[in-house]
Amino acid sequence: MIKLSKMTDYAIVCLGTLSRRPGYSMSATELSRETGLTLYTVQKLLKILVSKSDFIKANRGAFGGYTLNKN
């Protein structure tokens, strides 16, 4: 059995939620609402995922949000 930290588990939950809507941008608030995680936790995870991996990308602006970078 593989043991994951809470933050790793939460990151997988966020990535899974983003993968259910390919090509759709989700804000941190939407992700927080859909996953049940606190907004602070989601923002912290997204910041790490954007800066240290190429799984997701951040888009700024009125229609911005986070999208999966890979299929």
Give the topology.
Blueprint: H1 6-19, H2 28-35, H3 39-52, E1 56-59, E2 65-68
Antiparallel strand pairs: 1-2
Helix pairs in contact: 1-3, 2-3
Structure keywords:
single chain; 71 residues; mainly alpha; two-stranded antiparallel sheet; 3 helices; 2 strands; 11% strand; globular
Structure description:
It is a single chain. By secondary structure, the chain is mostly helical. It is built from three helices and two strands; from the N terminus they run H-H-H-E-E. It has a two-stranded antiparallel ribbon with strand order 1-2. A hairpin with a 5-residue loop joins strand 1 (56-59) and strand 2 (65-68). Helix 1 (6-19) packs across helix 3 and helix 2 packs across helix 3.
Biggest β-sheet, characterized? 2 strands, antiparallel
In order across it, which strands form the biggest sheet? 1-2
If you compute it from the alpha carbons, what radius of gyration comes out, rounded to the nearest whole angstrom? 12 Å
Q: What letter string, H or E per element, gives the SSE order?
A: HHHEE
